[in-house]
Amino acid sequence: MRNRNSGSQEKMEKLVMKGLSMNEFPVDIEISMAGPFDKVSSDENAICYTVYYYKEYMIKTSRVKHIAVDGVYPDKATIKSKSYPYTTEVFKSIRTDQEKQSMAYKIYELMNTPAGQDVVKESGYVPLQF
Q: Among 5, 40, 97, 101, which residue's beta carbon has the most beta carbons within 10 A?
């Protein structure tokens, strides 16, 4: 289990547990994102959860495998089609009074173009469809 204020923990509670308590299970609370992977890599009975991006692009290990949910494994195609059941969006936002000449606004505009979505894809996330 991740610490309470982690994004992984919030996603697990919202998407998977849906109000059920995780306290009934024997768990280790991991402070870092690498902690669960260390545990799974060294304990054949361990299981962990994290976001797809982190497993695929930050922790590159063949010792940790994805688990299918209802026969569907997480990958870019199943995440994009939402056939993998535990998907969520990541949003970008800026202040409504952000000056149009600011770098933040220019990046925001870029992210709303096909070229910006190519950057999203290159970074390992699943882009919007245009």
A: 40
Domain boundary residue, one of 80, 97, 116: 80
28 vs 47: CA distance, rounded Å = 11
Using DSSP, state whether 79 is helix, strand or coil: helix
Q: What is the CA radius of gyration of the chain?
A: 17
C-alpha closest to that of 52 among 17, 8, 108, 21: 8
The pLDDT tens digits of the residues spanning 35-50 come to 777 778 888 888 887 8
Tokens 């982190």 belong to residue? 54
Give yes or no: residues 73 and 11 share one domain. Answer: yes
Q: Is 105 domain-assigned?
A: yes
- Split into its structural domains, the chain has a count of 2
For the entire predicted model, the pTM comes to: 0.68
Residue range of the domain that includes 17: 7-80
